[in-house]
Every structure is written in structure tokens, then in C-alpha cells.
Amino acid sequence: xxxxxxxxxxxxxxxxxxxxxxxxxxxxPSERGAEVGRRxxxxxxxxxxxxxxxxxxxxxxxxxxxxxxxxxxxxxGPMVMGVAPRPTHxxxxxxxxxxxxxxxxxxxxxxxxxxxxxxxxxxxxxLAVLREGGVLGIFPEGTRGDGxxxxxxxxxxxxxxxxxxxxxxxxxxxSTERNSRLIRQLPPLRSRVDVVFGxxxxxxxxxxxxxxxxxxxxxxxxxxxxxxxxxxxxxLTGR
Length: 239
Known about the structure:
The chain is built from six helices and seven strands; from the N terminus they run αββαβαβαβαββα. By secondary structure, it is an alpha/beta fold. The chain has a single domain (52-177, 188-237), classed as 3-Layer(aba) Sandwich (Glycerol-3-phosphate (1)-acyltransferase). The longest helix is centred in the last third of the chain and has 26 residues, at 212-237. The two termini are 23 Å apart. The model is unreliable at 1-26 (pLDDT under 50).
């Protein structure tokens, strides 16, 4: 899963979709489908593991919200989708939309994104979710890694500043501590995975600017808040 990449050739932490790259608005991804996906996720996550969810009440009950999630394991996205208090539309790399999984992901309101370019369709779909007061899920690091928010792309700042939606930091902890003996790509069955939601915050500086400099400054502010939340989540959970 990933956020929208920016201009090819720019440093990863400075990439951001250009304003002129956004096409005309179109249909909003299905929130009903995302709710179906949330219910499926609830069953799977609580059936296979033991999620411990902390701070879910911090997610605003209505209005546009961006969930910024650390990413160290493939199960992180489905885990957040299942335990979040509202149906969530995640930006998911196009490589996952293969075979029967593609129609399924689209049916549950998830958004396909091409990480190799400024994906106009993904940008439009993500902004449509926020415009209609929905929840957008983003892995701001762009790909799986250490899950420490050490290197952010600017896509998160772009969506937050352009839409005015608050960002809720989300830390998923425990998904990579051990591998299952049955399926090594997954955490052990019935193991505990912690999902910690933080306080919502605004990414912009209040000026409404959407220049490259404004997005770079917003990315720095976002990284500071996400890193602080992750450190607090580790202290809170002991992980």
C-alpha cells in the first residue's frame, strides 16, 4: 500500500503531485463498499489475531479524515481497515490489484495507485473521498520498511493541505515481531497486534498556501508529529 508519488526524478521526501495534474472530479469511491470491507476486516483480524486497539475514540466521528499509518508488514492495512471506527479507503499499490483480488478491492472501496508516476486517477479518487467527508488511509512512507516514519513522501502533505482534512497518526506494533510457523509471511495466529490512534492535527500553517515550499514545510511538521506518536505508542504498549 502506498500514497500517491510525485514527479519522477524528484527526491522521495520532496515529491508531491502538481496542482495542474488533478483532472476533473468524478464519482466517489463507494463508502458502502468500504463499510463492507471494514466488517470483513473485523472478522478476519479478530478471528486470526488478538488486536488491542487504543485511542480509536480520537478519530473524528464525522467529516474528512486522513489516517497516516506506519507500514512494516502486509497485514498492517487490513488490520487498520478492520479495527478503525469508520470505513476507510486506503491507497493501495496497483500491483495488488491482480486477478480476482482487483475487483474485490475495488468493491470494498479501496483505491488503486501507480507508485511510479503522479497517478491522476488516484489523486482524483482520494480527493473525492475527502471532499465527501470520508476517511482516507495512507502509508506516508510509500512502501514497507521499518515502520518508523523516518522517510516521508509529500503525498500526505498534499492531500492534507489541499483538503483541509485533519491527520490522525496510527501506529501498528507487533506485526513483525515473530513469524507464524504455518505461514511465515504472517504474524503467529492469535498473537497480539497493537493499533494505537493518536490525536488529530492540521498539517497546514493556516495560510492556505499549496506551494512546493508550503508542502515541504508541512511534510516536516507531519513527520515530527508522526514520530512523536510512534514513540508514545511504543511507551504505552511496551513494544
